[in-house]
Model the fold of this input.
Amino acid sequence: MARQEMAGALQIVDSGMRQPVTAYLGLGANLGDARGALDFAMQQLGQTPGLDVTACSAYYRTSPIESSGPDYINAVAQVVTRLTAPQLLNCLHAIEAQVGRVRPYRNAPRTLDLDILLYGEGRIASPALTIPHPRMGARAFVLVPLAEIAPQCVALMQLDGVREQAIERLL
Ligand code: A4P
Ligand code: MG
Done:
């Protein structure tokens, strides 16, 4: 359905007929039932209007990087979506909230973290959203599952650069 917003004097008509974009999402959790939280997130993403989940990597057990607490469970999902990147981020925050995500400090252990890694060829640098995700290239917990489902998005040199970081593929 057509939606109209007033942005100052400019009227923007959002027809909802945007071209679909392939995006990659990082999933991570290290508090509570981490695997259950990732399962829940995948299920919720699958029910999100305007978004289709087209692939999901295996789950990986990873050591905390610049974080603390128990090992993380990480994965990467490929989605095809007509949502804008900010709309997609809002959906991710809503799913995080449903599993009780709190943000006591940056990189705190968390029940669920959902990040937008890539949004098509999009490049965004705003206070609320940076795409590509600025730290993804230095993290095995992103690069390894991303390479599993989208090898074209990861350079061998990047994988080589994170080979010291502990990561175990789960069955
Ligand atoms: N934000 C900006 N760009 C993005 C984006 N591309 N995707 C903003 C998602 N959010 C983005 O994020 C803080 C703010 O970043 C959001 O409000 C959003 O507007 P957050 O999820 O509230 O907090 P955070 O996760 O602590 O910060 P951040 O920057 O997302 O942390 P990182 O860099 O993602 O690192 N170790 C292992 N093994 N596994 C992990 O999953 N995760 C982190 C978090 C650290 N160490 C880890 C893991
Ligand atoms: Mg995050």
